[in-house]
Please model this.
Amino acid sequence: MTHQFDVIAIGNAIVDVLAPTDDDFLKAHDIPKGGMMLIDTQKASEITSALQATDQVAGGSAGNTVACLASLGGRAAFVGKVADDNLGQVYRDSMQEIGVDFSTPPLKTHPPTGRCLIAVTPDAERSMATYLGAAGHVSSDDVIQGEIELAAVTYFEGYLFEGEAPRSAFIKACDIARAAGRKTALTLSDVGVVERNRDALLSFIEGHVDLVFANEEEARALFGNHDDAASLAKAMKELVDFGAVTQSEKGSIVYGPNSPAEEVPAVMPPQLVDTTGAGDAYAGGFLYGFTRDMPLAKCAHLGSLAASEVISHMGPRPERALRELAVEKSAI
Model:
């Protein structure tokens, strides 16, 4: 079936705001060095105003995934919520610059656009203060039937699953995709999300999802304390047709309804600098191959190649065109 988009992703619209700082800045604003904390509106405004010489770019897990897919030459759309403010426009412009369609209407009232305030100290350590803001206000009204029907795969960010309104949006999108003969995919995002919502996630996956992305820790939290990734993949296969269990430097295990579980080696980066966004990049590369009916092992290899580029530098998005890299490595 023909489609306009390879993937339409529903996720948290978060602007990454990066700035060079020193350790005194972290202490002044109670930001844990090398860590991440959630902050409220007042704290977000305070830190945003204090940061100097910032670099602002669209972020968020699902946003990073479609950025990688677009870098490979794929066609993507994004559904997420920003406010009608400056950072909301930054997010919209940033997505459009990389060729990702983002037309979700902005939130006209509070809260403001979500942001991840990233203080980069001279030792290259990233310390983050995250404000979700408008991002968690995705609702079923933002899911447009015609857009979902135009996408080969609708992709869901697990972080959003915890909110009642976004969860309703997920279910609406799944119903539309299934009626149109399209596929759905979910990334589990975080082991804490899985532990807090295990039963609901299992029910959602069983009734609505075709493909699940999980790292080994997330898969174990969802499917039980199995000995190894191969056993986890086997447990996943009883619930969902397609799956990918990532294992960092050990690679990944992938399977399909007509394909036994298969181990695919990782692609080693030229240097390991920052693992932020590795799973997001893997999903982007995998989905590029998946929407072109490539063998699952090749999908996994593309995912690992995308992840290797992302972890070779600071930041969760590719600095080199992934299509160029994939052609150079004979991956496509």
